[in-house]
Specification:
This protein has about 300 residues and is mainly α. It contains nine helices and two strands.
Length: about 300
């Protein structure tokens, strides 16, 4: 919990230094770059915190609602759904916040996300995370421990998949393993890119697996459940497939209409942002002169903005 606090303090420190009149322009620009990297690290930590805390709690709370007899008072029957919606919004927004910080840290001269782009990106992520949480809770309500087995298999598979992409963020083997496992956990809920270059095939493969899992779990729940008269029965059957359609449409609209470089994107060629999921701030910040001579390789990775 202390990590985000430290990052924010360092962010403020470098932000103040970047505006100091006593420093040279070169030093101010270096502090500004460091400030952007600190913001990216803080965003990464907020995102991890959201997925480690809020996402599992969302699944658990929805599971409790589906399996327990509703005997809460009026106040709790209002507070619990509001709390769940708030957690869903928080998890989705953590992805947006990190995405915006990542864009800025890779190229401070790059045009940032517009209001339209932010809205579309948020809807895209919300329609990715929300239905996943719902379908996991529905499946768990009927299959209990089998859901944990399914999630564990998915987690292990995604961790291996990340390792096979050979992200070069860390040199020590143990650090690489921890990174692969953590990103594999996030991939239980949503897509994160960990490799440079075009990612359309990796994204297509991931979303094919996720959509297939969601639909299989939904059909299995629909077949087994005895609560076919419950209010959420038909809602779930409509929300999950509908969210898949909205997710695809909004994602395409984002890249075609609202992406900062939408004019350079050919339709159906680059469906996923070519940013790595994480770049450690523990590297030397180069001056402008060094950056101009740079080949575009950072920490062993190329970043296409």
């Amino acid at each position: 919990m202390i990590g985000p606090v430290v990052r924010h303090i360092e962010y403020l420190y470098h932000g103040c230094k970047s505006r100091s009149a006593t420093l040279s322009e070169k030093d101010r620009k270096n502090h500004y770059k460091q400030m952007l990297h600190e913001d990216t690290d803080a965003g990464m930590m907020r995102m991890l915190e959201a997925f480690l805390e809020s996402a599992p709690q969302l699944v658990l709370q929805m599971y409790i609602i589906l399996t327990e007899t509703p005997d809460d008072g009026l106040l709790m029957s209002i507070i619990r759904p509001v709390s769940m919606v708030g957690s869903w919004i928080g998890v989705s927004w953590s992805l947006v916040s990190y995405h915006k910080a990542l864009r800025a840290s890779h190229n401070e001269e790059e045009i940032g996300l517009s209001l339209c782009g932010t809205i579309f990106y948020y809807i895209w992520r919300a329609c990715e995370v929300g239905p996943r949480v719902v379908v996991l809770a529905l499946f768990a309500s009927q299959f209990q421990y089998y859901m944990l087995i399914a999630v564990a298999v998915h987690w292990a598979t995604m961790s291996i998949w990340v390792a096979l992409q050979k992200p070069e963020f860390y040199r020590k083997t143990i650090d690489k393993i921890v990174f692969d496992v953590v990103i594999g956990y996030i991939l239980i809920f949503c897509f994160q890119n960990v490799q440079s270059g075009h990612t359309r095939y990796r994204a297509m493969l991931y979303y094919f697996v996720i959509y297939a899992e969601n639909l299989v779990m939904l059909v299995a729940w629909q077949y087994i459940t005895t609560q076919k008269s419950a209010w959420y029965y038909f809602a779930a059957l409509g929300i999950i497939p509908g969210a898949i359609v909205i997710h695809i449409v909004v994602q395409l609209l984002y890249y075609k209409c609202c992406h900062p470089r939408s004019m350079d994107i050919v339709c159906c060629i680059n469906p996923v942002e070519n940013y790595n999921c994480y770049q450690s701030v523990c590297h030397e910040i180069k001056s402008n002169e060094e950056s101009k001579a740079d080949t575009g390789v950072n920490n062993g990775q190329t970043f296409e903005v």
